[in-house]
Design goal:
Pfam families: Methyltransf_11
Keywords: Methyltransferase, Transferase
Strand content: 5-15%
CATH class: Alpha Beta
Shape: globular
CATH architecture: 3-Layer(aba) Sandwich
Order of helices and strands: EEHHHHHHEHEHEEHEHEEH
Helix content: 40-55%
GO molecular function, one term: methyltransferase activity
Protein name: Class I SAM-dependent methyltransferase
Strand order of the largest sheet: 5-4-3-6-7-9-8
Radius of gyration: 19 Å
Organism: Nostoc punctiforme FACHB-252
Length: 312
């Protein structure tokens, strides 16, 4: 499927190949984890029904304390294979597919020439591959582990040129037009410092595209930190680092922030869409404090685009 944004620009499907090929995915996970194909298929079937099932099981088996940062949790990210299943299911979820499609169209509207993009914490590398398929110059970073191994194989089999950085200290400063950071900040121990790093990777005028559901702290998201809920819906987490709202979806999935200095005047002060995003942010912040998940009627639905038993 091809998504058209205008007469000049076409984008790949957000259901990035090989997400539509269950046999390829199952065989690769089996190869990486040394599990049988039958075990992998069973785990993936469970994950499509209940997002995070294996992660929750492995987390409790290791006796980890949920929602609190620890060195043990840090090691969990590196050593568990649960995120392979979790991220395959999430990257085929209708919410994530819509978000990926929106990002691709937004970037194609903003600039017709290829952009230098850093995908920070991209796990399986699906967003990296999508943006590379769209013609951009993309750099991938995630912590070493099963998901990074998956991503390397994904890039190799695609035949596309993707830069891989496996040491966060090696990421170039002020080198990127766009930093894409989706579903990462809610996991880190110090979001303000991490946002400062994101700002440092951007050229002036560059944009950070962020999705960070800080509010999702419950039994299904054990690695989301309770201490980070206070940032839910708070734009000042970003403005303090010189990142200012310029676009996004109303549900903050995602928001787009531009890197500017204190002398730059944005022309978006009276933009109705941006005021709507800010108001939704206020709703997110208040409702997080009152009952937790401001989108409780949407988030629990894990409607995958594919069934495990078929290729498409």
């Amino acid at each position: 499927m091809i998504f058209f944004t205008d007469q000049r620009v076409s984008l790949p499907s957000p259901l990035v190949k090989p997400l539509d090929d269950n046999n390829w995915i199952i065989n690769l996970i089996a190869e990486i984890t040394h599990e049988s194909v039958e075990t992998v298929r069973h785990n993936l079937e469970e994950e499509e029904i209940h997002l995070g099932r294996k992660q929750i099981r492995d987390f409790h088996e290791q006796g980890l304390l949920p929602h609190v940062w620890s060195e043990e949790m840090n090691e969990f990210y590196k050593n568990t294979d649960a995120f392979l299943y979790n991220l395959v299911a999430w990257n085929r979820n209708h919410i994530k597919l819509q978000m990926r499609d929106w990002i691709g169209k937004y970037l194609s509207r903003e600039k017709s020439s290829p952009l230098d993009i850093l995908c920070l914490g991209d796990g399986l590398g699906i967003d990296t591959l999508y943006l590379a398929q769209a013609g951009h110059h993309v750099t991938y970073y995630d912590v070493p582990g099963y998901t990074e191994t998956f991503a390397r194989r994904l890039f190799k089999d695609s035949g596309l040129a993707v830069s891989i950085v496996n040491d966060i200290q090696a990421i170039s400063k002020e080198a990127y037009d766009v930093v894409l950071c989706l579903d990462v900040l809610e996991h880190v121990s110090d979001p303000p410092s991490f946002v400062a790093e994101i700002a440092g990777y951007l050229r002036f005028g560059g944009k950070a595209i962020i999705h960070a559901p800080f509010y999702l702290v419950n039994e299904n998201y054990l690695t989301h930190l309770k201490s980070n809920q206070k940032y839910s819906g708070r734009l000042n987490l970003f403005t303090k680092q010189g990142l200012h709202l310029v676009d996004g979806q109303l549900g903050w999935n995602p928001i787009v922030l531009r890197k500017i200095d204190h002398k730059t005047q944005l022309t978006t002060r009276w933009n109705l869409h941006l005021w709507s995003i800010r108001l939704i942010g206020l709703y997110i912040a208040i409702s997080t404090q009152i009952w937790g998940n401001p989108f409780f009627w949407i988030i629990p639905n894990n409607r995958s685009m594919l069934k495990i038993g078929s290729k498409k």
